[in-house]
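Weekly puzzle thread! Below is a chain. First person to post its structure in token form gets bragging rights.
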Amino acid sequence: MSVSDNLSGITAAGIVAEYNPFHNGHAYQIQEVRRRSRAGFVAVVMSGDFVQRGAPALLDKYARAKMALLGGADLVLELPCAASCGSAARFAQEAVRILDGLHIVRELWFGSEAGDIRPLLAISRILAAEPEDFRERLQKYLREGKSYPLARHLALEEFLAGDGRALSASCLKSPNNLLGIEYCAALERLNSSIRPRTLKRIGSGYHETGLAGCFGSASGIRRAVTAGRPAELERQMPPAVYAAFSEALQKEGFLEADDFSLLLKCRLLEGGAESLLPFLPEDTARRAAALRNRFLSFTQFAELVKTRERTRSSIDRGFLHLLLGIPSGAGTPSGAAFSASLPCRTLTDAGIVRVLGFRRRAVPLLSSVKRAGGLSMEARPAALPAEEYGTDLFASNLYEAVRSQKMAQPFREERTRQPVIL
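Winning reply:
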């Protein structure tokens, strides 16, 4: 912790989230983090208009920031697009860079199926240190033609089993555990003073789509919305959040991957596989180019291009990279087990973090970040540097262009948008 932070007495607990959309499980997490951490504030780093599974967010980042603040968060910061629709490691690394760069965050909290930080830390230290035996196993699977994420997963399982840590290896089968491991590994790589903490995930599993009880998953909520059953969601959200969610749906509508189908088809028609290579791994680019005449929709084509070596989510992320002009960064330095660095510069590289919203009670937190010499906070998109914010600016304008066209509403240029203040 910085000297200025100690003098001010102001600390924050950090959460990384997508809130796609915000629900009771998220409200429970914020409540428990506030209670257990005893931090004065809860700061959230949240994905913008596109999310890590390779899709547009159901609602735009301003609507979701408002829901987060109504649900208990004090401050919502934007995770740059190159990370928010990147691999789990890139997603986690950039989010941790932001929290660490604030200089006032003491703990990073996340939900996990394990509910125990110890096995997650054990695995994360392997990923951060990259021992030689692990690298050799990884290279073996890469030579067999496995994709990087799959090769790393198999190498890690094999390494842990050989080291007598099968219990730790079982953590790799759960999505929230995996993301938690990436947060811990990112903290290790940065040598951050932030301490990782985990809460056991409650309610429906990550991939479950049912809405039994009051703790349904975000996947289940999205499915109810796209199926035209939003009234089923009232018990899945705190009352104030549900009111804001219902208002946003009614006034602004929602987006899903297939709303971007025509845009993706146009990009695929611009040239052969070589034109796709800056944005897609080579095998995916060549397969997409060969199959493009069978394109019907974003989701149909992603399922068609998917292979045993490339998961559906990685294909979806690749197609988003193509639409948004984000380089794939598919190459990995020789001998390195994994690189979580992003393929383009972000606001974090410029020492800036974008503020999406805050509660008025959090003004002392903003002042504390400034006194601590942390990242410069900026709420006005028009004031952000063009090079580092260009990708995010284009992504938000593209999202809004598709939304406004779908809803037959006027287009709202990103540089005219204002932060959410409650």
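Puzzle host: Confirmed. Bonus trivia for everyone else. The longest helix spans residues 386-407.
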